[in-house]
From TrEMBL:
Gene name, Swiss-Prot/TrEMBL: rplF
Pfam family, one: Ribosomal_L6
Subunit structure: Part of the 50S ribosomal subunit.
Organism: candidate division WWE3 bacterium CG_4_9_14_0_2_um_filter_48_10
Annotated protein name in UniProt: Large ribosomal subunit protein uL6
GO cellular component: cytosolic large ribosomal subunit
Length: 179
């Protein structure tokens, strides 16, 4: 059994855990998540703790991580921040559509999926929030993929704090290697 799943982990206050057939239902102040329990995995709720057990340790460890992330999500939520770097790059939220001006000849529209909230801190900072860690990360990655940062000028969409390795250009190579 994995080290992660050896001990039962505690359930914080305000979080309820229920079991229905092969589904684990978690409810908290931020929302509700439903996880499908894989075959061969047993989930037991003991007072204020949840214990995950099974024969295959890799699946037990994975499902334990999924349950812990779900508990964190419904209790605190998850958040990813993106920044738009480039002249004229900006974004705005209109209903369930994120409109982005990314230097193309047309604005790019991204439909915001259900379960995710997108807000704007400034017109160049996009904040993706939600209770499902996988969905928040997927939405942030899809938005970043619309215009990933390029290595020559550093323009594009990047995560806040992401370091983009810059390349010198063709002009720099000529001056260094020239005789």
């Amino acid at each position: 059994m994995s080290k992660l799943a050896k001990k039962p982990f505690s359930i914080p206050e305000g979080v309820t855990v229920g079991k229905d057939n092969n589904r684990l239902i978690l409810k908290g102040e931020k929302g509700e998540l439903v996880l499908t329990i894989p075959p061969g995995i047993e989930v037991a709720k003991k007072e204020n703790a949840v214990a995950v057990s099974g024969k295959e340790s890799r699946i037990v460890g994975l499902f334990t991580s999924l349950v812990k992330n779900a508990i964190t999500g419904i209790n605190q939520g998850f958040r990813k921040e993106l920044e738009l770097v480039g002249v004229g790059y900006k974004a705005e939220v209109a209903g369930d559509i994120l409109r982005l001006a990314l230097g193309f000849s047309h604005p790019v529209e991204y439909k915001i999926p259900e379960g995710v909230k997108i807000t704007m801190v400034e017109n160049t900072k996009v904040v993706v929030e939600g209770v499902d860690k996988q969905l928040v990360g997927q939405v942030a990655a899809e938005i970043r993929k619309l215009r990933p940062p390029e290595p020559y000028k550093g323009k594009g969409i990047r995560y806040v704090g992401e370091v983009v390795r810059r390349k010198s250009g063709k002009a720099m190579k000529v001056t260094v290697g020239g005789a």
